[in-house]
Amino acid sequence: MAKKRLAVLGSTGSIGRQTLEVVSAFPSLFTITGLATKGYLDVFEKQISKFKPRHIVIDDKNGLIRLAEDPGTDIIVMSIVGTAGLPATIAAIKMGKTIALASKEILVAAGDIVMPLAKKYGAQILPLDSEHSAVFQCLGTRVQGPGSSKTEKIKRLILTASGGPFRKYSKKQLSRVTAKQALAHPTWSMGPKITINSATLMKKGLEVIEAHHLFGVPYEKIDVVVHPQSIIHSMVEFVDGSIIAQLGVPDMRTPIQYALTYPQRQPKLYGSVDLTETGKFTFEKPDTERFPCLQLAYKAGKTGGTLPAVMSAANDSAVDLFLNNKIRFTDIPKIIASVMRRHKLIKKPSLVEILEAEIWARAEAGV
Length: 367
What we know:
By secondary structure, this protein is an alpha/beta fold. It has a domain at 4-127: Rossmann fold (3-Layer(aba) Sandwich), CATH 3.40.50. Helices cover 46% and strands 15% of the residues. The protein has helices at residues 14-25, 41-51, 61-69, 86-94, 104-121, 130-139, 171-174, 179-182, 192-200, 202-215, 253-261, 275-278, 293-303, 307-323, 331-342, 351-365, and strands at 4-9, 30-37, 55-58, 75-78, 98-101, 124-127, 154-161, 222-226, 232-238, 243-247. A six-stranded parallel sheet has the order 3-2-1-4-5-6, with helices on both faces. 46% of the residues are buried. The model is unreliable at 141-147 (pLDDT under 50).
C-alpha cells in the first residue's frame, strides 16, 4: 500500500508536533512532503532534519497556498492557530485534497464558505479535535462524513467539556485567577491560547460552531455537558433515545492517529481506558453565569454572518491581554461581548469581508 503523503501546516505548534509523533510511530504508512511554521525555528530545523520534506515554508501565506496545492501531497494537516491558514485550506479544497483540520477558527469564521466548497470539489474534511473526532466515530455510516445533511436520525450531539481548572471557583475567585493558574489544565496538554479558551469555556463554544458546520446539525441540537474525567470525548443521541459515546484516554495523539489512518484503524500507542480504575463518570451542566463565553459563542453562531469571526477574533485579543497580565480573567468575556455589540453585522459576507471583520474586532478588543 502506498504511503500517505502529508504536509503539516503549523508543524511546530502543539498539534503539529503531536502529528509528527504519530507519523514517526508509523513510518511505513506516512511520508512528510511539506512543513510550515511561523516560529520556533530551532524545533523546525530538527523537524526538517528528521523528516526531510521537499517543501518548507516559514511565515509566508503565499507559501502556505503553494504547499496546499502541491499535487504530490494527499493530506493537508491544518494546525495553524486562527484563520491564517484559511486561504491555504480553500486552496487545498479546490484541489480535492483531504484536510485534517485542527484550526477551529477556520470553520467558526468561514464555515458557510468552506463546507459548500468542500462538497463542490469532493474534498474530505476530517476533524482532529477529540470532540469532533468522537462525534464522527459515533455517527459511523449514519452520515456520509462531515458536512452531510443526513441528520434526520440525530436528536442531538453532546459535546463534553472538562470544565477546566476553575469549574468550582466562585465569581470572586475567578476575578483573581492568574495566567499561570489558567495554563495548568487538569487533564489535557495543549497550547497556551487553547488552554485559556478551555478555562473560559470558549473552546467549547468554538467547538459548538465547528460541529454545526462539520455535521450539518442545527444549534438547537448541539448540547454541552461538563465531564471532568475527560474520558468520554463526546456522544450522539439518536431519535430512538439511544446514545452512542466514544471513550479514550485524554491524549490528542489518539484522534490525530484516527484522522491520519482513516478509514483504517491502527494499534493503540497512547494508553487505554481501564474502566475499573476510572471508577465513575460524572456530568454537570455548564454554568454560563460564571463562564459566559459559551453563551456568547451560541449567540454568535445562531446569528451567523460576520459575528462568529468577530467573536473569535475578539477572544484572541482578550486572551493575549490576559496572558500579558493586562486584564483580569473575568474581563475576557466582557471584552468579547462589548465588541460583539458594537459590530455592524454582514449577514452573507465574502471571504474578504470576514477577514476585514476579524481585523476590526482585534483592534476593538485591544483595550
